[in-house]
User: Which sequence fits this backbone?
C-alpha cells in the first residue's frame, strides 16, 4: 500500500562527560559542516579534500534501515532524497521485514515488522512501524538479516583509569591540531569528551570514535562547538592518528551534533562502518562513515532530513 507520511520525531541524547584540555574550532552555521578525511599516513595537522563521495545507498545493504527513536522503531527509506508532504512510502517494503538489531555493545537480537504503526504525526519524519516481534535487548539500529556484522564499541569509561586518562589526552591533542580552526571565540577553552569508544574491525587496526565539545558559557549568547573524530593506530602503544573529522559550531540550542550509534561491517565488502545520527534543533539525519579499501574513512551515505 502506498501512503504519504508526516511524523514527529523524538530522541533521547545520552551525555557522558570526561574533561580534558587543549585548543581549537571553526565557526559556522548548523548546515555548514566541515568534514575532513585523512589517509592513515598523513599527520593530524594536515588535511586532504574529501574527494568524490558516493552519497548513495548500496542495494546490498538492504531495503531499509531501522532506528530506535526512544521507544519507537522508525523505518528509514535510504534512497529517498527528500522527506516532505509529497513523499510516498511503500508499506509493502517493511511488512514482514526481518532485521538484526545492533547496539554499541554488539549484536542485539532480531525483530520482525508487522507494518506501519497507526500513529498521528505532526511533522515530516520517518514512519513508525509496529513490530510483530521485538528484541529483548536494547538496540540503536537494525539491518536486513545477513547484511551487517556488529563491531563492539568499548566506552572509554571501561578502561583502567590510567589508560582512559591517556586516551583523553590523545584525543584532545588531535582535536587541538585539527585544521580549519577559524573561530577565535573558542580558542583557549577546554575540550570536553562527551563520548569516546574504542573498536577494532576484524583484521583491522585499533580505532576510536569520539564526540568532543567546547562551550562559551555566556548567558546572553551561549555558544558550542562539536567535533566528531575517528582515529587509528597500528598497534597498542603507538600514537593515535586522525583519519576523519567533522566540526560544527553555533548557539547551543541549534548546533549540529554527530552521535555514534553503532559500528558494523557491511555487505560483501565488509567495510568497517560507523553509523551516526546527526541532529539539529528540529531535524535529524542518519549517515555511514566507512573505511574504504584505500584506507581512507569517508562518508558514503546520508539519509534525507526529517523533522519539523
Assistant:
Amino acid at each position: 500500500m502506498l501512503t504519504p507520511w508526516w511524523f514527529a520525531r523524538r530522541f533521547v541524547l545520552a551525555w557522558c562527560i570526561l574533561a580534558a584540555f587543549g585548543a581549537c574550532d571553526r565557526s559556522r552555521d548548523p548546515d555548514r559542516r566541515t568534514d575532513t578525511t585523512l589517509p592513515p599516513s598523513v599527520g593530524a595537522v594536515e588535511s586532504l579534500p574529501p574527494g568524490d563521495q558516493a552519497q548513495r545507498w548500496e542495494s546490498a545493504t538492504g531495503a531499509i534501515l531501522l532506528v530506535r527513536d526512544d521507544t519507537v522503531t522508525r523505518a528509514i527509506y535510504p534512497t529517498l532524497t527528500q522527506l516532505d508532504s509529497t513523499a510516498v512510502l511503500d508499506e509493502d517494503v517493511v511488512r514482514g521485514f526481518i532485521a538484526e538489531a545492533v547496539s554499541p555493545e554488539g549484536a542485539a537480537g532480531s525483530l520482525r515488522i508487522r507494518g506501519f504503526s497507526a500513529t498521528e504525526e505532526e511533522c515530516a519524519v520517518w514512519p513508525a512501524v509496529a513490530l510483530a516481534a521485538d528484541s529483548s535487548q536494547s538496540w540503536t539500529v537494525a539491518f536486513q538479516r545477513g547484511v551487517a556484522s556488529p563491531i563492539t564499541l568499548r566506552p572509554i569509561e571501561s578502561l583502567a583509569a590510567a589508560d582512559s586518562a591517556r586516551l583523553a589526552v590523545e584525543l584532545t591533542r588531535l582535536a587541538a591540531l585539527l585544521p580549519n580552526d577559524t573561530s577565535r571565540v573558542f580558542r583557549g577553552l577546554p575540550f570536553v569528551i562527551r563520548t569516546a569508544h574504542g573498536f577494532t574491525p576484524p583484521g583491522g587496526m585499533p580505532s576510536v570514535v569520539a564526540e568532543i565539545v567546547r562551550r562559551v558559557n555566556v548567558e546572553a549568547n551561549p555558544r558550542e562547538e562539536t567535533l566528531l573524530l575517528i582515529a587509528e593506530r597500528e598497534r597498542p602503544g603507538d600514537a593515535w592518528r586522525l583519519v576523519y573529522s567533522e566540526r560544527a559550531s553555533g548557539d547551543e540550542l541549534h548546533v549540529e551534533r554527530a552521535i555514534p550509534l553503532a559500528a558494523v561491517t557491511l555487505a560483501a565488502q565488509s567495510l568497517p562502518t560507523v553509523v551516526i545520527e546527526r541532529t539539529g534543533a528540529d531535524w535529524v539525519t542518519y549517515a555511514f562513515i566507512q573505511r574504504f579499501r584505500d584506507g581512507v574513512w569517508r562518508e558514503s551515505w546520508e539519509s534525507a532530513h526529517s523533522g519539523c
Notes: Confidence is low (pLDDT under 50) at residues 1-32, 36-54. The radius of gyration is 19 Å.
